[in-house]
Amino acid sequence: MQYDQTLLCTILNENDIEINETQMVSLNDITQKIIKAKKPKTFIADIADKILIHNKYYITLDACHELLHDLQLNDGCNRITTKHNFSNIIDFEKNILQFNEYLFTAFLMIEGSNCFGVWIRYNEILDLLNLNDDMDIENENIMTYETLSKCDKFPKINNGCKYKYSRFINLAAISFLIDKSMAIDIDEIKKFFNEDIAQSFDTYIKRVIDQFFYCKDILGIDIARE
Predict the structure, then answer these.
(1) Residue 152: what pLDDT?
(2) CA nearest 180: which of 141, 136, 142, 121?
(3) Angle CA(88)–CA(90)–CA(94) in degrees, nearest 5?
(4) In Å, how far are 95, 119, 146, 224 from 62, measured between CA atoms?
(5) Residue 65 sits in the same domain as residue 103
(6) Residues 126 and 45 in one domain
(7) pTM
(8) Is residue 225 one of the residues assigned to a domain?
(9) How far apart are the C-alpha atoms of 97 and 125, rounded to whole Å?
(10) 99 - beta bridge partners?
(11) Residues 48 and 151 grouped into a single domain
C-alpha cells in the first residue's frame, strides 16, 4: 500500500519517536508513546521482522505504516493513514492498477482488441473489502503467480514478483467478493472494478488503433478501418 512517507516521519517526530540514521523506527518508542500498549513487552514480542539494535527494537518505515494502519488507535495513527491526493490509476501499457491509496500487485493482460484480463493478489482484495479468507472462489477465477506467469498474454513489463507463491484472482472473482462486502466505500469500489477498468481498456485500445493508422498514413500504407 502506498503512503505519504514524509507525513509519517513528521508524525513520528512530533511524537518524539526515534528514527535512526538508516531510517529504522524505534518499536519501543511507538509502543510506549503512540500505541500506549498496556503490556509493551508482550506487544513487541508479537511483532514480526523487528531488529534488535543496542538493546532496542526497530522496524522499517513500511512496517511502521502497516502497523499503525492496522491499529488506527489515535489521531496520530489516523493522520498517517488518511488519504492524501491519491487517485485511481488504470494503465494497461505500464501494468499499473491503483484504487485510491491501494497500489495493487496486479497483472493486466491484453488478450485481443475486445478482450482483456486483470489478475490481482487475493489478499490485497480481501484487505480492500474487509473480508476474511473463507470465500468459495471458483477454480478458473483463482491461480498462483507461478501458474499465472506461464500464460501467453502475461505482461512482459513484469520483472518478477515477490509474492511468487501467492494467489491471484480475476475480475469475476472480485465481483463475487464485492457482493459480499460491507465496506464503507463499496459503491466506489464496485464502479472501479465493474466499469472503470473496462472503460480504460477501451480507451487504451482506441489509442493504439489511432496510433497505428497515424503511422500508416505517414508511411503511405493503404489500410482501411473496419
Answers:
(1) 83
(2) 136
(3) 130
(4) 23, 24, 26, 53
(5) no
(6) no
(7) 0.57
(8) no
(9) 12
(10) 102
(11) no
